[in-house]
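Let's study a protein:

===
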Amino acid sequence: MIAHGQYAGLKAVVFAPTITFPFVRLPVELRQMVYERLFCRNCTPKRRERVGPNATRPEPRHMSLLMTSKPIYTEAIPFLYNGHNFFFHNMSQFNRFVQELGTAARFLTSALVTKSGSKLTEHCYTLLNQLESLQRITLTLPAVPTERLSAHIDKQWEHAKLFLLSAGVDEKESMRRLDLITFRVGPTQRNVLGSDGKAIKVITTEMNELCKKHLRKKISRHFQAGTEAIRL
């Protein structure tokens, strides 16, 4: 009998299972459907708003499932990372996160880094080589120095080569990797200047394409020089 609340006076039937559900004996296809459902495939976490003390807590993400056993962790972890776009407050946080993931980093598909620094980009681009499933990454240009967009992109190239031109990467793969990258500026940044000398508030799709066109030429020249060296 329920004593309190809106259902007071009603009888409740409680089912207490006496055996453990044989989850691991389910067909692998069914287990994968469970992982997709639990880890909210293809959703993007939103910024958490301030709430009052009486606000209802959000439903759990069932992360405890990953701690059940190593086989289940190995089987389920791709569904966790493949279904979310990860936001990082700064590049240091991103670099640390990828390092801590270890081999699981290869399942990360999408990320946005909202702040960066010239001393961190080298490590960042090196770590991108571990993200085998990467589909897109958005990188914020450093807040210093104050220069034209083209100059910022030239400086990015010096470190981006560690990802775009890493060992074993051919020209086609290099171009594919470049297409994964999008550049942006933070909402308060005023150090990235346009051709008119004014601060760029938003790097548009068209601007990004011009940046990539500039970098594609660098990639082409790199492989062309390599081909000519082989001929000699």
Notes: The longest helix spans residues 205-231. Helices lie at 28-38, 70-82, 91-101, 121-127, 149-164, 171-179, 205-231. The mean pLDDT is 87. The chain has two domains: 23-41+62-84, 85-231.
